[in-house]
Amino acid sequence: MKILITGGAGYIGSIVTEVCLGRGDAVTVYDNLSTGHRESVPPEANFVRGDVGDRGRMTSALKESGAKAVIHMAGFIEAGESMRDPGKYFLNNACRPVELLEAMVEAQVKKILFSSTAAIYGDPVTDMIDEDHPQYPTNAYGESKLLFERLLDWYDRIHGTKHAALRYFNAAGASAERGEDHEPETHLIPLVLKTALGKRDFVEIYGTDYPTPDGTCIRDYIHIKDLAQAHIMALDALGSESLHYNLGNGKGYSVREVMETARRITGVNFEIKESGKRKGDPVILVASSKRISKELGWSPRHPALEDIISTAWDWHCANPDGYKT
Predict the structure, then answer these.
(1) Residues annotated catalytic, as ranges
(2) Is the dihedral of CA 41, 43, 48, 49 positive or negative?
(3) C-alpha angle 173/321/41, rounded to 5°?
């Protein structure tokens, strides 16, 4: 299949690109490199530098690539930042991608897979968040993603543009050649590993009095390669009906569990400091993958936190300065 991947130079996008190429797809990566890395794009992929909000360039890229489907992964992803600068998130995650949808209509591309987030649900009212959970985001990031999902519904109704929205929390881990490298880095596992490498003096815990067994937030972590495989399966399944799937490990891990697991794997007793809670941080976030498991047969192949952190550690050791290495 010919596929155009927006945000394909990012952490998740580059590994989705890698998996698509590995099964024989022809991939065009479309990225403005505002947060991605040109070095992360596999050499077999065609690369176009451009902004999702540039309808003319977007339309040209779709037509020239002959794409039959789009995987939309371009977007800002930091929940904490979204509570300080909500306009940045609504503009980039909900408004500019309208130009992508209009370009798809013009180029007659009828399928889009959207990298959404389980943050659209907000604070959980059940132990496991499924697709029928109420949608009340607690941060502007989650709201911006929910807004775009609603736009996708309207383009389905009006133009017949079918979509699959994948909702997940924390992607982690690495492939042999590609891993997580953000600037600045805000995600827990790479922060912990950078601290173990001596790139940071300490790592922080934000809040230690949550109503959890050890007082720290609990989150669902999913291996990046499992995540990429789910994207491929959902895209292949996309037909006459739009799809919505949650992706998760089925088990949550606390912040302290992540840090102690990283200490065991790295063999480094790095410093941990305790700080106050962050605004917009729910206590527990764990997604249920029962629907995609039942309908598509997907399940995580690397569910253990040890496996997730080990692959990330291997990549960071080989690339201590990220893609600058």
Answers:
(1) 141
(2) positive
(3) 60
Q: Average of pLDDT values for 203-217?
A: 95
19 CB neighbour count, 10 Å cutoff: 19
Residue with tokens 């598509």: 296
Q: What is the pLDDT of residue 111?
A: 98
Fold of 188-219+251-324: UDP-galactose 4-epimerase; domain 1 (3.90.25)
The domain spans of the chain are: 2-172+221-247, 188-219+251-324
The CA distance from 206 to 209, in Å, is 10
Predicted model pTM: 0.94
Enumerate the H helices of the chain as residue ranges. 11-22, 55-65, 79-82, 86-90, 97-107, 140-159, 188-196, 224-237, 255-266, 290-296, 305-318
Strands 252-254 and 162-168, bridge-based pairing: unpaired
- Which residues does residue 220 pair with via DSSP β-bridges, in sequence order? 252
Q: Which of 55, 150, 53, 163 is nearest to 106 (CA)?
A: 55
Using a 10 angstrom Cβ sphere, with 0-12 exposed, 13-18 middle and 19 or more buried, the burial of residue 275 is exposed
Alpha carbons 135 and 148: distance in angstroms, whole number: 13
Does the domain spanning 2-172+221-247 belong to CATH 3.40.50.720? yes
Q: Which two three-digit tokens encode residue 272?
A: 């941990």
| 305, 309, 311, 313 alpha-carbon torsion, rounded to 10° | -170
> Residue range 171-191: average pLDDT?
93
**What pLDDT is attached to residue 29?**
98
The overall longest dimension of the chain from CA atoms, in Å, is 57
Amino acid code (one letter) for 74:
A
282: left (phi over 0), alpha (psi -120 to 50) or beta: beta
Angle at 50 between CA 159 and CA 141, to 5 degrees: 70
Per-residue pLDDT tens digits for 102-111? 999 999 999 9
